[in-house]
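Troubleshooting log. The previous structure file for this entry was overwritten by mistake, so regenerating from the original sequence record. Sequence copied from the archived sheet and checked twice against the printout by T.R.
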Amino acid sequence: MSLFAACLLTVLIECPFLALFGYRSRYDLTVTAAANVLTNLTLNLALRFLLPYTLHVVILGELSVTAAEYGIYAAAHRPSKRLLALTVAANLLSVSLGTGLMMLAAPLFRS
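Regenerated output below.
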């Protein structure tokens, strides 16, 4: 999956997810989209050029992304257990759907 597609997919999953739980103002959506673009591109560029693409590295990267996004959201809003839980859930959802889509699409790109 291209960097752009992975980033766009993440934003298209996580913004509506958080909006469902009340983070739907223009400010909320801007913070969510910006945090996701920043963390998604950082992780995917690191995996592509700097880090080995192993399960352990990907899991640690996703945990780091979740922590970074929560830090951004907590700075933009009030830190809370609910916000942390929503951040974790949004990231689990986007990783799950993204991985599923990659697995479904992989046969289309084999030669």
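The chain has one domain: 3-97. Archived copy saved in two places this time.
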